[in-house]
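Data card: per-record layout.
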Amino acid sequence: MPTTIEKLLGQRLGLKNIIDRFVSKIEEASDEVDDIHFQALIEKLEEKVACLRVYNENILSLTDADATPEEMVEADEYTFDVEVKLRR
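The structure for this 88-residue chain is written out next.
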């Protein structure tokens, strides 16, 4: 049976996959989709990124002290990359 942190890591991975799909849809559709559809995609993506931040905090709270710095860097890098893509 998976531990709490393993569950959170798995759920976070699924959320990252969803975020990546939304980013791809936005990149592909930016010229082809009306403003309402595009804005809805952006809002949904922002919701998912907010959820990701919560998962990151929960995972960090359960991570042992030795793995915490690496986990922090990984979480921040991914979130930063998504935010940069959103601003393009």
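Known properties of this structure: The radius of gyration is 15 Å. The longest helix spans residues 35-62.

See the next section for split statistics.
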